[in-house]
Amino acid sequence: MVLLVSNYNDSITDEICSWLSSEDKKFIRLNENQVISSVKFNFNQNSFEISIDEVSYNLNEIKAVFYRNGTISYNTCDIGTDELDINLEEFYRRECNSITNFIFYYLQTRNIPIYGNFFVKEVNKLEVLHLANMLGFKIPETYIFSEVFDIKKTITQKEFITKALSEMQPIINGDGLYLNYTTQISKENIQNKTKLIPTLLQNKIRTDFEIRTFFFENKIWSVATFDFENNVDIRNIKEVDKKYIPYELPMSLQKKILKLAKVLKLKCGTIDFLRTRNEYFFLEVNPLGQFHQVSLFGNYNIGKYIASLL
Fold it and tell me: Looking at the domain assignment, is residue 183 inside a domain?
């Protein structure tokens, strides 16, 4: 039996499940909105069962795991603060987390194939950028400043973009929804500012095209994305206005990707590159990045490949 941990609306997991069904492989899909309703663990007999939606599953029958995103949670511990002292409630939550951590641990000790970033769910973008530079990737000219003076002085020399240091966070203000995509920074943006939070600046690179790469274990797939309007963030472009073609990275760059993944202890992830004048600029890696477009427009059938391993 195969265990898949994901979100209920994840199209990539949907595709993998379809391929598993076509291959007559039994599987459990545990979405983040689902919870374990009960556990029966007998350590002396090495018997470990969990129940989800009133159906029992034996952990010893799981032969492979695919982790996409989300977590495994236990609903019995969802007790409101009206009933318990906050310290006791926190104790209950820690008790339940111990169950989740043990399930992860036990599956790992059984030496079954575990695919995806089961244990490393996020990375620090700045650490990754520094590491990529150390491993020989080309990176954009990069600064972080918290003083307006330093930013103004820097952006007078050439064009710069700014983007979040951490993951993108949608912001709702009144009736407006704001997405902190990558944007070009100008003096007008900071004209009336006296103090800022630490802000990342990278020189704006005139690109031939962008590349989205997905790596899974030791395999690498890529597609080139063309933006004929020279947008700063390609996510601002309508899907119908984008042009994709399959793309193969140089072997030297592929070796660096696998080395980066090994150091970061990532078993899969997406990487974004900029290609300009026969040079490749590393932007970032996302352990939970979407690779549906890579598979679809590259005609790679990545979901089928992953299902064949499970």
Answer: yes
Specify if 250 maps to a domain.
yes
**What are the pLDDT digits (tens) for 10-66?**
889 999 999 999 999 999 998 877 888 889 999 999 999 999 888 899 999 999 999
Residue 263 counted as domain residue: yes
Q: Is the pTM of this model over 0.70?
A: yes
Give me 176's structure tokens: 């407006």
Give φ, ψ of 268 to 5 degrees.
-160, 170
How sure is the predictor about 76, in pLDDT bands with cuts at 50, 70 and 90? low
As a whole number of angstroms, the distance between CA 289 and CA 291 comes to 6
Q: Enumerate the H helices of 231-279 as residue ranges.
A: 251-264
- Alpha-helix runs per DSSP H in 117-268: 125-134, 148-155, 251-264
Give the pLDDT band (50/70/90) at residue 260.
very high
Domain containing 274 equals 209-301
Instruction: For residue 43, tell me if it sits in a domain.
Output: yes
Q: Which candidate, 221, 214, 225, places its Cα nearest to that of 270? A: 214
Q: 224 and 145 in one domain?
A: no
Q: Which of 280, 288, 200 is nearest to 248 (CA)?
A: 280
- The domain that holds 253 is classified in CATH as 3.30.470.20
CA angle 200, 274, 145 (to 5 degrees): 10
**Domains of the chain: total:** 3
Distance CA 274, CA 213 (A): 11
pLDDT in tens, 214-250: 999 999 999 999 865 555 544 455 555 568 899 999 9
Q: How far apart are CA 228 and CA 208, in angstroms?
A: 9
Asked if 214 and 257 sit in the same domain, the reply is yes
